[in-house]
Amino acid sequence: MTSPRVIGAEHVEDARRRGRVALEVMPGDIVTALARESASRIGVRLVDGPLEKPVPPIVDGNTAMRRVLHKRSPGWVSPSKSRPKRVCRFAKIALVGGGGVGSNIAHLAAAGDMADEIAIVDVAPGIAAATAMDLNHASGITRTRARVAGGQNLELVAGADVVVVSAGRARVPGMSRADLIGVNRRVIHAAGEAIRTNAPEAIVIVVTNPLDEMTVEMLRATGFPRERVLGMAGTLDSSRYRNALAEAAGVPPSDVEAIALGSHGDEMAPVASLARIRGQPAERFLAKEALRRCGEEAVGGGARVVELKKTGSAVIAPAHSTIELLDHIRGARQGPVPVSIMLEGEYGISGVVLGVPAHLGRSGLVEVVNLRLSGDERAALGAAAEAIGKRLEM
After folding, report:
1. Which of 43, 99, 301, 352 would bridge 385 by S-S if both were Cys, CB 3.0 to 4.6 A apart?
2. Rounded distance between C-alpha atoms, residue 131 and residue 133, angstroms
3. Taking a C-beta distance cutoff of 8 angstroms, is the pair 206, 167 a contact?
4. Of 42-46, 85-89, 170-174, 276-280, which has the strongest mean pLDDT?
5. What's the pLDDT band for 346 if we cut at 50, 70, 90?
6. DSSP secondary structure of 221-240
7. Confidence (pLDDT) at 58
8. Which of 137, 264, 320, 328 is catalytic?
9. Helix, strand, coil percent values for the chain (each to nearest 5)
10. Residues 122, 98: contact at Cβ < 8 Å?
């Protein structure tokens, strides 16, 4: 309750200046004779209160924002809502290689209910079958519809929509990815022949190292068009680069957008010129030397995992990187994603597999995205192409 007021001529004059045509007089207020005379003279009505206040309309945030934008620019028109892209579910995903990478991919794909069927193939007796049984046992908790089968026979890839090949020898400390070309080439050709025979319409994702070179070998073994033979590299390299930038800047990785192109190895080309931290150029947060060290961290991240493990290489990050590609293929993620493909003139390079940003869909490669790179970054991409070409000749 407010205390009674004495309403004088000055209150009436103030109401007139404010453009009001009525002055509310609450119970207990005293109105002077001069106030009544002034109100009558200047046309301000003295109204007994309390007056009923109008209820303000409740407006949702989106409508309020549209009104603000329209007031600022009367020509602004609210964009129509785009239809969400339909997310597809694979009939079958086949995994050639049931080791650390393959088993983690199977686990993530099954938990994400990405396919009706997941098949795991591994030459080691019992490994694939045991992993499949383990995952099926977990389905009582996860409630996934995906059923998992495992065995040693490559014919298990039959009818797969996508085949992920991670089989092959892993690195040990002191070994480069290129050191694996000879032994893993035989593995890739055996898998490629089985895929060509049993899953002739499949998209193939190569994870086996050295990845770029083995993607070329898979193209040769299957005879598939480049659209259906992809290498998982840029997703992993870019993830390591983003992590390094986030740690250096002291921000969460979700605040960082960055991409690494080129070879999955020493000739990797982290694109510092396009790196963003909280939407701003990374150079606003990090000095040039710090940015350079982040690039080196991305290039050498896999080797450091090998040094620590002694008897193997990274498995968790490569598995998540592969799932990212699968999500782009089935429409669960939109936009370009870095992936290793056979270049046919893009970036001025032909006849070599390199990691570049691309749009993917149910048919595999849809379109390569041509980024605007600095001169040094474009030169690094060319150097990676030259190095891969030399290794393939060897």
Report:
1. 352
2. 5
3. no
4. 276-280
5. very high
6. HH---GGGEEE--HHHHHHH
7. 61
8. 264
9. 45, 20, 35
10. yes
Phi, psi of 91 (to 5 degrees): -75, -40
Instruction: Specify the pTM.
Output: 0.76
User: In this structure, what token pair is assigned to residue 106?
Assistant: 């199977």
Mean pLDDT of the chain: 88
**pLDDT value at residue 319:** 97
Beta strand 268-270 with 260-262 is antiparallel
Q: Cα(133)–Cα(345) distance, rounded to whole angstroms?
A: 46
Is a pLDDT exceeding 90 seen at residue 172? no
In whole angstroms, what separates CA 148 from the centre of its chain?
Answer: 26
- Would you call 193 helix, strand, or coil by DSSP? helix
Amino acid at 387: A
pLDDT given for residue 237 in this prediction: 92
Q: Could you tell me if 258 and 348 are in contact, meaning their C-beta atoms sit under 8 angstroms apart?
A: no
The string of DSSP letters for 82-126 reads: PPPPPPP-EEEEEEE--SHHHHHHHHHHHHTT-EEEEEEE-SSTT
Q: What is the mean pLDDT of residues 33-61?
A: 75
In whole angstroms, what is the distance from residue 150 CA to residue 133 CA?
A: 8
Q: In the chain, what is the straight-line distance between the N-terminal and C-terminal CA atoms, in Å?
A: 93
Average pLDDT over residues 1-6: 72
Residue 57, pLDDT score: 60
Which residues sit opposite 118 in a β-bridge? 93, 148
Residue whose C-alpha is closest to residue 326's, from 283, 379, 364, 380: 364
Catalytic status, residue 70? no
CB atoms within 10 A of CB 159: 15
Average pLDDT over residues 223-238: 95
